[in-house]
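Hi V.,

Quick status before I head out on leave. The structure for the redesign project is tokenized and pasted below; the design run finished overnight.
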């Protein structure tokens, strides 16, 4: 650890797919996290330095950012909207569309018709 966000040495890492639902992604993260924790506890790792890259720190998303706007519907492709809805599955504030009467139409799941 150091005084930078995510700036300390890398002890262990494992890449994994971000395909599927949030539930599937969390399941894979948990399995990998358990595996890496066991390796760390048994001393089976070699530290390496973080790459010196310029990175940007983003603030936490607000529930308002889950809105799918008319502009997005007009300008974005299906895959963009599919991924936005998919990344906002429970437990996150779900994607929504505001209706004429001021209500929110909540979108919990999506698929793309090929």
């Amino acid at each position: 650890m150091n005084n930078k966000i995510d700036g300390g040495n890398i002890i262990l890492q494992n890449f994994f797919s971000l395909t599927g639902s949030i539930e599937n992604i969390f399941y894979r993260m948990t399995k990998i996290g358990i595996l890496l924790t066991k390796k760390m506890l048994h001393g089976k790792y070699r530290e390496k330095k973080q790459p010196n890259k310029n990175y940007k720190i983003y603030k936490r998303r607000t529930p308002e950012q889950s809105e799918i706007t008319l502009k997005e519907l007009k300008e974005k492709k299906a895959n963009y909207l599919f991924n936005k809805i998919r990344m906002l599955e429970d437990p996150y504030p779900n994607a929504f569309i505001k209706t004429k009467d001021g209500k929110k139409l909540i979108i919990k799941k999506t698929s793309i018709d090929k």
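Above is the designed sequence. The chain has two domains: 1-53, 63-107.

G. will cover questions while I'm gone.

Best,
W.
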